[in-house]
């Protein structure tokens, strides 16, 4: 789950543990990762509020009796902060080095928690990764206690409703009201190949075929691995005139901020998941795999049916309003708000905004006046003032300069 943009992307990649790494682990760690998920239910369908949080969703859960707020991230395994692990006095049984969403190496420790409770669900003897989130989130604004992720999904159906902001969890899809009678608009197989049991599925553009990950830790809608866009069959699905290029970072992930690189945004028409998706916004990332992100919930309810190895999309009754990318992205970096993405030909770029500029005010609102260490980050991520901002004030040579974003 990447963190931090005032608008747009953000993801902790699946820190998968390869078979070759198992040989370096204790037998206890290998057994814990391979053990089936043990879940007990207090009712047929568990309904859990999805709380909008910094451009993501958070849920309440308790770990060994300690209740905290966790980011709900389908694209990552369950992870907890070092601070929570120390509070719980967890025994470390192994270590893993994987790669984050920016392709950087990131080391975590492995522990077992006796009980993970989400509402009336109790998951027993669950492996968790212990991570130092201060690398990516020094003030604890975005991640907090950790991430509830895909390694607890097997054996259950996870229905994500972005219209009502609820997560429904059941043993079978027909147990969930609405799914009993509604056929999916789009249905595709899930390929669940072992820990962390990530929701991976096939997609295609004509004869081009690949696999992607459903990742609620990324705020965008479709995120293609950048090498995929070099294929002519994929290029044919990019809507003419929609392609915009820029420079900047793909965001902060577990091992820190991604390097400055070429960026691309566009509209895609006809991505096939068994049936064709309609025209949707898309961007790229510099590490595999391709993703469908949280933005898909603006149009569809998503059901991850691990009991039948399938993913289903049902169209919402009222799709959410489409957000227009403003052509630049802001992020809190070392106590200051910086321009971390800028696209060619955008109003902001033509007005003189520069990559790396420090922004001190938006529409005259002094960013230093936001309360607390997380006040600015929360305002940028949740209120999204950049979407319709008229002016940005940046610092140049020690003096404030106002940049007008009004279209001529």
TrEMBL record:
KW Signal (keyword) present: yes
Q: Which InterPro entries has this protein been placed in?
A: PDZ, PDZ_6, PDZ_sf, Peptidase_aspartic_dom_sf, Retropepsin-like_bacterial
Extent of the signal sequence: 1-23
What name does UniProt use for this protein?
A: PDZ domain-containing protein
Q: Which organism is it from?
A: Alteriqipengyuania halimionae
Domain named PDZ: residues? 310-368
Q: Which UniProt keywords apply?
A: Signal
PROSITE patterns for the chain: PDZ
Q: One Pfam family this chain carries?
A: PDZ_6
Gene3D superfamilies given for it? 2.30.42.10, Acid Proteases (2.40.70.10)
């Amino acid at each position: 789950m990447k963190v931090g943009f005032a608008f747009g992307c953000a993801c902790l990649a699946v820190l998968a543990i390869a078979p070759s790494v198992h040989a370096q682990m204790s037998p206890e760690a290998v057994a814990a990762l391979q053990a089936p998920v043990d879940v007990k239910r207090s009712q047929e369908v568990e309904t859990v509020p999805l709380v909008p949080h910094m451009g993501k969703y958070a849920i309440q859960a308790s770990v060994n009796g300690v209740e905290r707020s966790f980011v709900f991230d389908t694209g990552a395994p369950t992870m907890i902060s070092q601070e929570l692990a120390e509070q719980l006095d967890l025994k470390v049984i192994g270590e893993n080095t994987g790669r984050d969403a920016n392709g950087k190496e990131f080391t975590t420790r492995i522990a077992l928690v006796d009980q993970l409770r989400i509402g009336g669900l109790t998951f027993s003897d669950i492996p968790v990764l212990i991570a130092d989130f201060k690398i990516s989130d020094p003030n604890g604004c975005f991640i907090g206690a950790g991430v509830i992720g895909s390694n607890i999904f097997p054996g259950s159906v996870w229905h994500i409703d972005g219209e009502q902001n609820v997560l429904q969890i059941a043993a079978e899809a027909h147990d969930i009201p609405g799914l009993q009678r509604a056929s999916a608009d789009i249905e595709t197989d899930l390929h669940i190949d072992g820990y962390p049991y990530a929701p991976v599925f096939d997609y295609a553009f004509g004869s081009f075929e690949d696999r992607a990950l459903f990742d609620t830790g990324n705020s965008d809608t479709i995120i293609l691995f950048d090498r995929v866009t070099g294929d002519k069959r994929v290029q044919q699905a990019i809507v003419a005139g929609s392609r915009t290029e820029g420079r900047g970072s793909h965001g902060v992930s577990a091992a820190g901020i991604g390097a400055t690189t070429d960026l691309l945004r566009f509209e895609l028409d006809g991505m096939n998941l068994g049936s064709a998706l309609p025209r949707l916004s898309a961007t790229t990332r510099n590490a595999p795999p391709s993703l469908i992100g949280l933005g898909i919930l603006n149009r569809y309810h998503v059901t991850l049916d691990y009991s039948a190895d399938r993913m289903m999309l049902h169209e919402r009754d009222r799709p959410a309003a489409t957000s227009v990318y403003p052509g630049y992205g802001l992020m809190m970096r070392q106590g200051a708000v910086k321009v971390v993405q800028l696209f060619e030909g955008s109003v902001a770029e033509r007005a003189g905004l520069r990559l790396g500029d420090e922004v001190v005010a938006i529409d005259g609102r002094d960013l230093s006046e936001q309360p607390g260490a997380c006040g600015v980050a929360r305002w940028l991520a949740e209120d999204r003032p950049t979407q319709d901002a008229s002016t940005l004030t940046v610092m140049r040579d020690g003096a404030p300069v106002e940049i007008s974003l009004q279209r001529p």
